[in-house]
Amino acid sequence: MAEFRSSIATIQDEEFDFLKDLIYKKTGIFLAPHKKIMVQSRLNIRLRHYNLAGFKEYIHLLKTDKSFFDNELTELINRITTNKTDFYRENHHFEFLRDTYFPMLEEESKQNGIKKIKIWCSAASTGEEPYSIAITAQEYFAGKPGWSIKILASDIDTNVLNTAKEGLYKEERLAPVPDRIKTKYFSKQIINNQVFYQANPIIKSMIEYKKINLLESPFPIGEKADLIFCRNVIIYFDKPTQKKIFQGFEESLKPFGFLIIGHSETMFGISDKFKFLGHTIYQKKS
Ligand SMILES: C[S@@+](CC[C@H](N)C(=O)[O-])C[C@H]1O[C@@H](n2cnc3c(N)ncnc32)[C@H](O)[C@@H]1O
Protein backbone atom coordinates (compact mmCIF):
# COMPACT_ATOMS: atom_id res chain seq x y z
CA MET A 1 0.00 0.00 0.00
CA ALA A 2 1.25 3.52 -0.85
CA GLU A 3 2.39 5.87 1.90
CA PHE A 4 -0.42 8.01 3.34
CA ARG A 5 0.22 11.74 2.82
CA SER A 6 -1.46 14.22 5.11
CA SER A 7 0.26 17.58 4.44
CA ILE A 8 -1.35 20.35 2.38
CA ALA A 9 0.15 20.63 -1.09
CA THR A 10 0.83 24.16 -2.29
CA ILE A 11 0.02 25.35 -5.78
CA GLN A 12 2.57 27.18 -7.96
CA ASP A 13 1.61 30.11 -10.22
CA GLU A 14 1.93 28.13 -13.46
CA GLU A 15 -0.15 25.27 -11.97
CA PHE A 16 -2.86 27.71 -10.95
CA ASP A 17 -2.75 29.26 -14.46
CA PHE A 18 -3.23 25.84 -16.07
CA LEU A 19 -6.23 25.03 -13.85
CA LYS A 20 -7.64 28.55 -14.22
CA ASP A 21 -7.56 28.23 -18.06
CA LEU A 22 -9.08 24.74 -17.94
CA ILE A 23 -11.93 25.82 -15.63
CA TYR A 24 -12.59 28.88 -17.77
CA LYS A 25 -12.73 26.80 -20.96
CA LYS A 26 -15.04 24.17 -19.48
CA THR A 27 -17.33 26.26 -17.25
CA GLY A 28 -16.92 29.93 -18.15
CA ILE A 29 -15.95 30.62 -14.53
CA PHE A 30 -13.11 33.13 -14.40
CA LEU A 31 -10.76 32.62 -11.47
CA ALA A 32 -8.98 35.86 -10.62
CA PRO A 33 -5.42 35.57 -9.20
CA HIS A 34 -6.68 36.08 -5.63
CA LYS A 35 -8.60 32.76 -5.96
CA LYS A 36 -5.31 30.82 -5.96
CA ILE A 37 -5.51 29.83 -2.29
CA MET A 38 -9.17 28.87 -2.65
CA VAL A 39 -8.28 26.59 -5.59
CA GLN A 40 -5.36 25.14 -3.63
CA SER A 41 -7.49 24.31 -0.61
CA ARG A 42 -10.48 22.98 -2.55
CA LEU A 43 -8.34 20.70 -4.75
CA ASN A 44 -6.13 19.26 -2.04
CA ILE A 45 -8.87 16.73 -1.40
CA ARG A 46 -8.56 15.52 -5.01
CA LEU A 47 -4.80 15.09 -4.57
CA ARG A 48 -5.41 13.10 -1.39
CA HIS A 49 -8.03 11.03 -3.21
CA TYR A 50 -5.33 9.86 -5.66
CA ASN A 51 -2.58 9.94 -3.04
CA LEU A 52 -0.60 12.38 -5.18
CA ALA A 53 2.32 14.34 -3.74
CA GLY A 54 1.40 17.66 -5.31
CA PHE A 55 -0.27 19.68 -8.04
CA LYS A 56 2.57 18.88 -10.43
CA GLU A 57 1.56 15.21 -10.50
CA TYR A 58 -2.16 16.03 -10.67
CA ILE A 59 -1.68 18.36 -13.65
CA HIS A 60 0.66 15.89 -15.34
CA LEU A 61 -2.12 13.29 -15.18
CA LEU A 62 -4.68 15.76 -16.51
CA LYS A 63 -2.38 16.59 -19.41
CA THR A 64 -1.23 13.11 -20.34
CA ASP A 65 -3.90 10.60 -19.34
CA LYS A 66 -7.13 11.03 -21.30
CA SER A 67 -9.19 8.61 -19.23
CA PHE A 68 -7.99 10.29 -16.01
CA PHE A 69 -8.92 13.66 -17.51
CA ASP A 70 -12.38 12.46 -18.59
CA ASN A 71 -13.13 10.97 -15.15
CA GLU A 72 -11.64 13.79 -13.13
CA LEU A 73 -13.10 16.80 -14.94
CA THR A 74 -16.54 16.51 -13.30
CA GLU A 75 -15.00 16.19 -9.82
CA LEU A 76 -12.65 19.10 -10.48
CA ILE A 77 -15.57 21.29 -11.56
CA ASN A 78 -17.65 20.12 -8.58
CA ARG A 79 -14.87 21.27 -6.23
CA ILE A 80 -14.50 24.68 -7.85
CA THR A 81 -18.10 25.84 -8.21
CA THR A 82 -19.52 28.14 -5.54
CA ASN A 83 -22.90 26.78 -4.51
CA LYS A 84 -24.17 29.33 -2.02
CA THR A 85 -27.96 29.36 -2.01
CA ASP A 86 -30.95 29.58 0.33
CA PHE A 87 -34.64 28.88 0.51
CA TYR A 88 -36.51 32.04 -0.61
CA ARG A 89 -33.27 33.83 -1.47
CA GLU A 90 -34.24 37.24 -2.89
CA ASN A 91 -37.78 36.67 -1.76
CA HIS A 92 -39.21 39.40 -4.02
CA HIS A 93 -38.88 36.96 -6.93
CA PHE A 94 -41.17 34.45 -5.20
CA GLU A 95 -43.56 37.28 -4.35
CA PHE A 96 -43.50 38.18 -8.05
CA LEU A 97 -44.50 34.60 -8.91
CA ARG A 98 -47.32 34.61 -6.34
CA ASP A 99 -48.66 38.14 -6.83
CA THR A 100 -48.03 38.86 -10.51
CA TYR A 101 -46.84 35.97 -12.65
CA PHE A 102 -49.17 33.14 -11.61
CA PRO A 103 -52.28 35.40 -11.52
CA MET A 104 -51.31 36.61 -15.02
CA LEU A 105 -51.07 33.04 -16.35
CA GLU A 106 -54.34 32.16 -14.64
CA GLU A 107 -56.05 35.12 -16.30
CA GLU A 108 -54.55 34.22 -19.71
CA SER A 109 -55.72 30.63 -19.33
CA LYS A 110 -59.31 31.87 -19.41
CA GLN A 111 -58.64 32.99 -23.01
CA ASN A 112 -56.17 30.39 -24.30
CA GLY A 113 -57.11 27.37 -22.15
CA ILE A 114 -53.43 26.70 -21.33
CA LYS A 115 -52.89 25.38 -17.80
CA LYS A 116 -49.34 24.13 -18.22
CA ILE A 117 -46.26 25.92 -16.90
CA LYS A 118 -42.65 24.96 -17.44
CA ILE A 119 -40.04 26.70 -15.30
CA TRP A 120 -36.34 26.10 -15.87
CA CYS A 121 -34.16 26.72 -12.84
CA SER A 122 -30.79 26.82 -14.59
CA ALA A 123 -28.30 27.11 -11.71
CA ALA A 124 -30.24 25.14 -9.13
CA SER A 125 -27.34 24.31 -6.79
CA THR A 126 -28.44 22.15 -3.83
CA GLY A 127 -32.17 22.58 -4.57
CA GLU A 128 -33.34 25.35 -2.23
CA GLU A 129 -34.26 27.50 -5.25
CA PRO A 130 -36.31 24.93 -7.23
CA TYR A 131 -38.05 23.78 -4.02
CA SER A 132 -38.94 27.42 -3.23
CA ILE A 133 -40.42 27.72 -6.73
CA ALA A 134 -42.30 24.43 -6.35
CA ILE A 135 -43.76 25.45 -2.98
CA THR A 136 -44.80 28.88 -4.27
CA ALA A 137 -46.54 27.27 -7.26
CA GLN A 138 -48.15 24.57 -5.14
CA GLU A 139 -49.46 27.16 -2.67
CA TYR A 140 -50.95 29.16 -5.53
CA PHE A 141 -52.40 26.41 -7.74
CA ALA A 142 -53.45 23.72 -5.24
CA GLY A 143 -57.21 23.38 -5.43
CA LYS A 144 -57.32 24.97 -8.91
CA PRO A 145 -58.17 22.08 -11.23
CA GLY A 146 -56.21 21.12 -14.34
CA TRP A 147 -52.92 22.93 -13.70
CA SER A 148 -49.64 21.17 -14.39
CA ILE A 149 -46.46 22.84 -13.14
CA LYS A 150 -43.12 21.32 -14.07
CA ILE A 151 -39.74 22.57 -12.95
CA LEU A 152 -36.51 21.57 -14.65
CA ALA A 153 -33.62 22.04 -12.23
CA SER A 154 -30.15 21.98 -13.73
CA ASP A 155 -26.59 22.74 -12.72
CA ILE A 156 -23.10 21.91 -13.97
CA ASP A 157 -22.18 20.44 -10.58
CA THR A 158 -23.37 16.84 -10.22
CA ASN A 159 -22.81 16.75 -6.43
CA VAL A 160 -25.25 19.59 -5.77
CA LEU A 161 -27.79 18.06 -8.13
CA ASN A 162 -27.67 14.84 -6.11
CA THR A 163 -28.28 16.80 -2.91
CA ALA A 164 -31.19 18.60 -4.57
CA LYS A 165 -32.67 15.31 -5.77
CA GLU A 166 -32.46 13.84 -2.29
CA GLY A 167 -34.19 16.89 -0.79
CA LEU A 168 -32.87 16.28 2.72
CA TYR A 169 -31.75 19.42 4.56
CA LYS A 170 -30.26 20.18 7.96
CA GLU A 171 -32.64 22.07 10.24
CA GLU A 172 -30.70 25.35 9.97
CA ARG A 173 -31.05 25.36 6.18
CA LEU A 174 -34.82 25.63 6.67
CA ALA A 175 -34.53 28.82 8.77
CA PRO A 176 -36.01 31.09 6.03
CA VAL A 177 -39.00 28.75 5.61
CA PRO A 178 -42.13 29.75 7.59
CA ASP A 179 -43.27 27.08 10.10
CA ARG A 180 -46.58 26.53 8.29
CA ILE A 181 -44.76 25.78 5.01
CA LYS A 182 -42.17 23.64 6.78
CA THR A 183 -44.83 21.44 8.34
CA LYS A 184 -46.82 21.21 5.14
CA TYR A 185 -44.02 20.38 2.66
CA PHE A 186 -41.30 18.69 4.76
CA SER A 187 -41.13 15.84 7.21
CA LYS A 188 -38.88 16.05 10.24
CA GLN A 189 -36.25 13.34 10.63
CA ILE A 190 -33.65 12.67 13.26
CA ILE A 191 -30.48 11.22 11.83
CA ASN A 192 -27.51 10.63 14.16
CA ASN A 193 -29.09 12.95 16.75
CA GLN A 194 -29.34 15.76 14.20
CA VAL A 195 -32.60 17.26 12.96
CA PHE A 196 -33.19 17.12 9.20
CA TYR A 197 -36.14 18.03 7.01
CA GLN A 198 -37.11 15.87 4.05
CA ALA A 199 -38.98 17.47 1.12
CA ASN A 200 -42.29 15.68 0.62
CA PRO A 201 -43.36 13.84 -2.56
CA ILE A 202 -45.73 16.64 -3.67
CA ILE A 203 -42.94 19.13 -4.27
CA LYS A 204 -40.38 16.47 -5.23
CA SER A 205 -42.58 15.19 -8.03
CA MET A 206 -42.79 18.68 -9.58
CA ILE A 207 -39.02 18.82 -10.21
CA GLU A 208 -36.85 17.03 -12.76
CA TYR A 209 -33.05 17.22 -12.66
CA LYS A 210 -30.49 17.39 -15.41
CA LYS A 211 -26.82 18.32 -15.68
CA ILE A 212 -26.64 21.30 -18.05
CA ASN A 213 -23.58 23.44 -18.69
CA LEU A 214 -24.61 27.04 -19.40
CA LEU A 215 -21.62 27.28 -21.74
CA GLU A 216 -23.14 24.72 -24.07
CA SER A 217 -26.05 26.27 -25.92
CA PRO A 218 -28.47 25.49 -27.52
CA PHE A 219 -29.63 24.19 -24.15
CA PRO A 220 -30.99 20.62 -24.02
CA ILE A 221 -34.20 21.44 -22.12
CA GLY A 222 -36.73 19.83 -24.49
CA GLU A 223 -39.92 21.86 -24.69
CA LYS A 224 -39.34 25.61 -24.37
CA ALA A 225 -39.81 27.21 -20.95
CA ASP A 226 -42.32 29.82 -19.83
CA LEU A 227 -39.90 31.19 -17.25
CA ILE A 228 -36.19 30.79 -16.58
CA PHE A 229 -34.48 31.39 -13.24
CA CYS A 230 -30.74 32.05 -13.64
CA ARG A 231 -29.69 33.75 -10.44
CA ASN A 232 -26.26 34.44 -9.02
CA VAL A 233 -24.18 32.63 -11.61
CA ILE A 234 -24.02 35.04 -14.57
CA ILE A 235 -21.80 37.18 -12.39
CA TYR A 236 -19.00 34.60 -12.67
CA PHE A 237 -18.88 34.88 -16.48
CA ASP A 238 -17.26 37.47 -18.73
CA LYS A 239 -19.35 39.65 -21.07
CA PRO A 240 -19.00 37.52 -24.27
CA THR A 241 -20.05 34.42 -22.29
CA GLN A 242 -22.99 36.26 -20.72
CA LYS A 243 -24.10 37.41 -24.18
CA LYS A 244 -24.05 33.84 -25.49
CA ILE A 245 -25.98 32.55 -22.45
CA PHE A 246 -28.68 35.24 -22.77
CA GLN A 247 -28.97 34.36 -26.46
CA GLY A 248 -29.42 30.71 -25.46
CA PHE A 249 -32.09 31.70 -22.92
CA GLU A 250 -33.96 33.70 -25.53
CA GLU A 251 -34.02 30.61 -27.77
CA SER A 252 -35.15 28.40 -24.84
CA LEU A 253 -38.10 30.63 -23.91
CA LYS A 254 -41.57 30.67 -25.36
CA PRO A 255 -42.68 33.99 -26.92
CA PHE A 256 -42.94 36.67 -24.21
CA GLY A 257 -41.36 34.28 -21.71
CA PHE A 258 -39.74 35.58 -18.52
CA LEU A 259 -36.17 35.51 -17.25
CA ILE A 260 -35.14 36.19 -13.66
CA ILE A 261 -31.50 36.89 -12.78
CA GLY A 262 -29.74 37.69 -9.49
CA HIS A 263 -29.82 41.03 -7.66
CA SER A 264 -26.27 42.02 -8.61
CA GLU A 265 -26.61 40.92 -12.23
CA THR A 266 -27.78 42.88 -15.26
CA MET A 267 -28.51 42.45 -18.92
CA PHE A 268 -27.85 46.13 -19.56
CA GLY A 269 -25.56 46.54 -22.58
CA ILE A 270 -25.43 42.76 -23.12
CA SER A 271 -28.75 41.79 -24.70
CA ASP A 272 -31.57 43.91 -26.12
CA LYS A 273 -33.90 40.95 -26.69
CA PHE A 274 -35.55 41.38 -23.28
CA LYS A 275 -37.65 44.08 -21.68
CA PHE A 276 -36.64 45.04 -18.12
CA LEU A 277 -39.54 44.87 -15.65
CA GLY A 278 -37.65 45.81 -12.45
CA HIS A 279 -36.18 43.70 -9.63
CA THR A 280 -33.93 41.89 -12.16
CA ILE A 281 -36.99 40.41 -13.88
CA TYR A 282 -37.02 40.46 -17.70
CA GLN A 283 -39.49 39.51 -20.41
CA LYS A 284 -38.59 38.30 -23.89
CA LYS A 285 -39.72 40.96 -26.37
CA SER A 286 -41.37 38.67 -28.90
C1 LIG B 1 -23.96 30.73 -6.27
S1 LIG B 1 -24.87 29.36 -6.85
C2 LIG B 1 -26.47 30.11 -7.09
C3 LIG B 1 -27.60 29.14 -6.78
C4 LIG B 1 -29.00 29.71 -6.93
N1 LIG B 1 -29.29 30.04 -8.31
C5 LIG B 1 -29.23 30.91 -6.03
O1 LIG B 1 -29.23 32.04 -6.53
O2 LIG B 1 -29.39 30.72 -4.82
C6 LIG B 1 -24.25 29.21 -8.53
C7 LIG B 1 -24.49 27.86 -9.16
O3 LIG B 1 -24.16 27.93 -10.55
C8 LIG B 1 -23.56 26.71 -10.94
N2 LIG B 1 -22.73 26.90 -12.16
C9 LIG B 1 -21.50 27.48 -12.26
N3 LIG B 1 -21.07 27.44 -13.53
C10 LIG B 1 -22.05 26.84 -14.26
C11 LIG B 1 -22.18 26.51 -15.63
N4 LIG B 1 -21.22 26.79 -16.55
N5 LIG B 1 -23.32 25.88 -16.02
C12 LIG B 1 -24.30 25.59 -15.12
N6 LIG B 1 -24.22 25.88 -13.81
C13 LIG B 1 -23.11 26.50 -13.38
C14 LIG B 1 -22.74 26.31 -9.72
O4 LIG B 1 -22.46 24.94 -9.72
C15 LIG B 1 -23.64 26.76 -8.58
O5 LIG B 1 -24.44 25.70 -8.10
Pick out its properties.
2 domains, globular, 20% strand, 10 helices, Chemotaxis Receptor Methyltransferase Cher, domain 1, seven-stranded mixed β-sheet, alpha/beta, 286 residues, binds S-adenosylmethionine, single chain, three-stranded antiparallel β-sheet, Rossmann fold
Protein model, in words:
With about 290 residues, the protein is of the alpha/beta class. It folds into 2 domains: about 70 residues, Chemotaxis receptor methyltransferase CheR, N-terminal domain (Chemotaxis Receptor Methyltransferase Cher, domain 1, Orthogonal Bundle), CATH 1.10.155; about 160 residues, Vaccinia Virus protein VP39 (Rossmann fold). Helix content is about 45%, strand content about 20%. It has 10 helices and 10 strands. A 7-stranded mixed beta sheet has the order 6-2-1-7-8-10-9. The longest helix is centred in the middle third of the chain and has 21 residues. The N and C termini lie far apart (about 65 Å). The mean pLDDT is about 95. The structure holds S-adenosylmethionine. The site of S-adenosylmethionine has 23 residues, from loops.
Mean pLDDT: 96
What is the number of strand segments?
Answer: 10
Could you list the spans in which at least 5 consecutive residues all have pLDDT below 50?
A: none
CATH architectural group of the largest domain? 3-Layer(aba) Sandwich
For the largest beta-sheet, the strand count, sense and barrel status come to: 7 strands, mixed
Q: Work out the radius of gyration.
A: 21 Å
Order of strands in the sheet with the most strands?
6-2-1-7-8-10-9
- Structurally, the number of domains stands at 2
Q: Quick one: overall form?
A: globular
The residue fraction in helices comes out at 40-55%
